[in-house]
Amino acid sequence: MRVLLDTHVALWWLKGDDRIPRRIRDIVAHPDTERFVSAATIWEIAIKSKLGKLPAAAAAVETMPACFTDIGFSMLDINAAHAKRAGSLPLHHRDPFDRMLVAQAAIESLTLISGDPVLSLYDVDTGWDAIR
Predict the structure, then answer these.
(1) Which residues pair with 112 in a beta bridge?
(2) pTM score
(3) Could you give the angle at the alpha carbon of 102 between the alpha carbons of 5 and 106, nearest 5°?
């Protein structure tokens, strides 16, 4: 399985937060799972940390993306195809970071792991229920 973690899930993963359902944690941790974190996630964390919206993540910003790659996640860069798809998506979700993650998941055939129910409105495997 190939998964892309939404920003909140990526932060929860770093903290070992139990808001991630056990079955999702087990699949993400499985050695056969390819795990990705988007450059959009790094960008979002950096911006929200600077604005004071993610004060607990401020220290992690300094070590990104290494804090993810050091634990076995691959970084997914943003390319022109991702940008074009994100810009053409229906406006179910107005957050540009989430729209980029949806576009990347669709183009790269990844399951987007997110607790955000709005993302399930897009034509991509998303949410806690995306993994069965």
Answers:
(1) 4, 126
(2) 0.93
(3) 100
Domain residues for 81? 2-130
Binning the chain into helix, strand and coil, the percentages to the nearest 5 are 55, 10, 35
Query: Percent of the chain at pLDDT above 70?
Result: 96
Angle ∠(9,25,105) on CA atoms, nearest 5: 50
What's the order of all strands across the beta sheet hosting 111-113? 74-76, 34-38, 2-5, 111-113
Between strands 2-5 and 34-38, the pairing is: parallel
Dihedral angle over CA of 71, 109, 129, 78, nearest 10: 60
Q: What is the CATH number of the domain that holds 36?
A: 3.40.50.1010
